[in-house]
Amino acid sequence: MCNLYRMTKPADAVRSLFRARGNVAPNFAAEVYPKYTGLVVAEGEVRTMTWGFPRHAVSKKTGKPLKPTATNNARDDKLRGNPMWRDSFRDRRCLIPVTAWAEAEGAAGAMTRTWYSLPNQELFAVAGIWRPTDEWGNAYSMVMVDGCEQMADVHDRMPTILAPENWERWTDGTPDEAFSLLRIWEGPLIVDRTDVPWFARASAPAPLL
Questions:
Q1: Coil/strand/helix, residue 196
Q2: Would you list the domain boundaries of the chain?
Q3: CA-to-CA dists, residue 40 to 16, 94, 132, 176, 197, angstroms
Q4: What's the sign of the alpha-carbon dihedral 119, 203, 85, 43?
Q5: What is the DSSP string of 6-65?
Q6: For each of the chain's 209 residues, which pLDDT tens digit applies?
Q7: How far apart are CA 189 and CA 116, in angstroms?
Q8: N or C, fewer C-beta in 10 Å, the chain?
Q9: How far is CA 147 from the centre of its chain?
């Protein structure tokens, strides 16, 4: 599952590529982690939202509520039945602009970051859903499908990459039309294996100029 991705293009580039409205010029991180602010295209507009739907739990020791955690990935096979995702999939689908996403590779305790991106595409769209929350304002989650062959040795799930001709069908089509787009990616990937530890310190949000 994806717990880290890059989005290194400014909001203006996102507006242009996705032909979206909006005058967003906030601070957001080039590397996006759960609970970070990221850019999405929702209802034809570029917006900032928090990555991850809040999930609540209570302490087993005290019985008191814990701080909510971020559920930042939604499985394709859970979208229609799980109450956490069902209404958002039906009514609030969005596009998540991505430059590359990372997976942890290697032995436990020594995992490194392996990055995946598309050849000849500095920016592409991943399927997402969103909803308003009391905790973090509007929040979004990535939709995951089975991993393609090129990443089978690292992880069995991956973000749903949407071809440009399917962007509007994902956001504005019927739930059945949108669901038909949740399939294994058949195109090539660029695989960049690095020596950077998976648990390296997160980069602070910074403005993209």
A1: strand
A2: 5-53+69-196
A3: 13, 7, 14, 22, 28
A4: negative
A5: E--S-HHHHHHHHT-B-----EE-SEE-TTSEEEEEETTEEEEEEESEEE--B-TTT-PB
A6: 789 999 999 888 999 999 999 876 556 778 999 999 999 999 999 999 999 999 887 767 777 777 889 999 999 999 999 999 999 999 999 999 999 999 999 998 899 999 999 999 999 999 999 999 999 999 999 999 999 999 888 989 999 999 999 999 999 999 999 999 999 999 999 999 999 999 875 554 443 33
A7: 6
A8: C
A9: 15
Largest Cα span, the chain: 53
* Residue written as token pair 């997160």: 202
Tokens standing for residue 92: 């609030």
Amino acid making up residue 33:
Y
Tell me the residue type at 111.
M
pTM of the predicted protein model: 0.91
Beta carbons within 8 Å of 80's beta carbon, 6+ residues apart: 86, 89, 175, 179
Q: What Cα–Cα distance (Å) separates residue 201 from each residue in 6, 34, 60, 109?
A: 15, 13, 29, 15
